[in-house]
UniProtKB/TrEMBL annotation:
Protein name: NAD(P)H-binding protein
Pfam families referenced in this protein's UniProt entry, alphabetically: NAD_binding_10
Chain ranges of the NAD(P)-binding domain: 7-152
Domain of life: Bacteria
Length: 336
């Protein structure tokens, strides 16, 4: 079996790509510059160039569309053309499209319990674009798999609330910032579990519906305090308490910095509980891959270079001067 991964240098794209290789797939990855390694066949090209994507997808049975614009910039100009290119490539190759879904599709009206068939009425521009992406995929008549999960964390999660909002990569954990309002539950997803879930579903092949849509339960933090507590335990500082995320910064800078404006629009996801049902997933797989929270958090902090024996070997990203500021500024790469 062969797959093409768009966004293989990103968190979920990279995790899925590596797992597919481990499962015996031949995996091609599209990137704008010459790369090598990780058992992938790197192809130079751009997800914004339809010819590049169609060429790279020749002979594949799966296209993983895990590519996003950097730092929330130019979503309106980039996101939909990229999904159209993926649709064209899948039509030419006969491949199934795998899309990592998001909770942005849902507005406050369906919270706190989001079921798989909940109406998608987003209240943000980014959410509206995500809904349009899925509409185009469904209308294409191609085999499509959408898997939604909570906020990502993991050793190689890249741009995430965990890595840019709660802790400071490359530094010992001395401060934990919590975006949640007191007592508000939040859903998290450990990236290796997400990738395992996606690949297990892909392996079902034609047993899946033409447009398959599943959600993961992941790690449910019932009061918004379990994740910060797990970070403190993994860091060997069980008494360390989380401070509040400086949401005021997103309001002050929103008129000037697009990322701040986007974060402010998504605040509703932290002000009330957000919990997705995984009933459809359980009906198909029987169980959901689930790494214990303390193990997942410890591995994540190790990957981020936040534990004492790894700090010197894992320099912090220069863009991450402080955890709250890094979360607001955002350092997402395009993932190509």
């Amino acid at each position: 079996m062969e797959a093409l991964v768009l966004g293989a240098t990103g968190g979920i794209g990279g995790e899925v790509a590596r797992l597919l290789v481990a499962r015996g797939w031949r995996v091609k990855a599209l990137h704008r510059s010459v790369r090598q390694g990780e058992g992938l066949e790197w192809i130079t090209g751009d997800a914004m160039n339809r010819d590049d994507v169609v060429r790279a997808a020749q002979g594949v049975q799966l296209i993983v569309h895990a590519v996003n614009p950097p730092g929330y910039r130019n979503w309106g100009q980039l996101v939909l053309p990229m999904i159209d290119n993926t649709i064209a490539a899948a039509r030419a190759s006969g491949a199934r499209i795998l899309l990592p879904g998001t909770v942005y599709n849902y507005g406050p009206g369906v919270l706190p319990h989001i079921y798989e068939d909940a109406p998608q009425r987003p209240v943000t521009r980014k959410g509206a674009i995500r809904v349009e992406m899925e509409r185009r995929l469904k209308d294409s008549g191609l085999p499509v798999l959408v898997v939604r999960a909570g906020d990502f964390f993991g050793p190689k999660a890249g741009n995430s609330w965990f890595a840019q909002g709660l802790v400071k990569p490359g530094k010992p954990v001395t401060v934990i910032s919590n975006p949640s309002a007191p007592g508000v539950g939040h859903q998290w997803a450990y990236l290796p579990d997400v990738a395992e879930t996606m690949v297990r579903l892909v392996e079902l092949g034609d047993a899946l519906p033409l447009f398959a849509n599943y959600q993961m339960q992941g790690h449910w933090d019932a009061d918004g305090m379990q994740m910060p507590a797990a970070i403190a335990r993994a860091a060997g500082k069980p008494g360390l308490r989380a401070g509040a995320f400086p949401w005021w910064l997103t309001w002050v800078a929103a008129p000037f910095v697009p990322v701040f404006r986007e974060l402010r629009e998504m605040r509703y996801l932290w002000r009330q509980p957000v919990r997705m049902s995984n009933a459809w997933l359980l009906a198909v797989l029987g169980s959901e891959p689930h790494t214990p929270l303390d193990v997942a958090v410890s591995r994540t902090l190790q990957g981020l270079g936040c534990l004492p024996d790894q700090v010197s070997a894992s320099p912090a990203s220069p863009a991450m001067a402080s955890a709250p500021v890094a979360a607001a500024i955002g350092t997402t790469r395009r993932g190509q």
